[in-house]
Amino acid sequence: MLWLKALHIIFVVTWFAGLFYLPRLFVYHVDVNDEVAYQRFVTMESRLLTITGIGAALALLFGIALLHYWGFKHGWLHAKLVLVALLLGYHHACSRLATAFREGRNRRSARWFRIFNEVPAVLLVGIVILVVVKPF
Ligand code: HEM
């Protein structure tokens, strides 16, 4: 089980690296007018989305594998999976926002993206407290 947990945490970190950096790219992308620089951001965002997606898939795969040892009847795990579902929703939103930039139809402001960028940090704190402390 410890190998599974180690791999789970490694890919959780990969996943979060992307979820923290993508909205940061969006913040700067909003103010880019030069076409070459604009396309460079589009390329960076799409490559980062691919890596973030691989991290997410493997974090979930090893997380589900860990359920084999823990079963499902734990309040902390139920609460954790609710926050993980919100994280998946956030990831999906990032992918839609990257598409909006690629198609030149982003309408969000840099300020909006700065606030949006805080969401994964809040979810991370909640998930880690639930899984390490197991308060209920
Ligand atoms: C489908 C999604 C997930 C499932 C089913 C899942 C399930 C689990 C299980 C059963 C454990 C073992 C708990 C233990 O041995 O103490 C675990 C450990 C852990 N999970 Fe997840 N997890 C998922 C997603 C995530 C995500 C998104 C994070 C992001 C922060 C995360 C962070 C952790 C951490 C830090 C540990 C190690 C806890 C410890 O050793 O005390 N997991 N996970």
Features:
136 residues, mainly alpha, 0% strand
TL;DR of this structure?
With about 140 residues, the protein is mostly helical. It is built from 5 helices and no strands. α1 (about 1-30) runs parallel beside α3, α2 (about 35-70) packs antiparallel against α3 (about 75-100) and α3 runs antiparallel to α5.
Task: Provide the number of structural domains.
Answer: 1
Give the end-to-end Cα distance, rounded to a whole number of Å: 22 Å
Radius of gyration: 17 Å
- Taking pLDDT < 50 over at least 5 consecutive residues as the criterion, the unreliable ranges are none
The helix-and-strand class reads: mainly alpha
Number of helices: 5
Overview of the structural elements:
- The protein is mainly alpha-helical and 136 residues long.
- The chain has one domain.
- 84% of the residues lie in helices and 0% in strands.
- Helix 1 runs antiparallel to helix 2 and helix 1 runs antiparallel to helix 4.
- It is elongated and about 55 Å long.
- The model has no long low-confidence stretch (mean pLDDT 97).
- Protoporphyrin IX containing FE binds next to helix 1, helix 2, helix 3 and helix 5.
- Protoporphyrin IX containing FE (HEM) binds next to helix 1, helix 2, helix 3 and helix 5.
Topology:
Elements: H1 2-29, H2 35-70, H3 75-102, H4 110-116, H5 119-133
Helix pairs in contact: 1-2, 1-3, 1-4, 2-3, 3-5
The structure holds protoporphyrin IX containing FE (HEM).
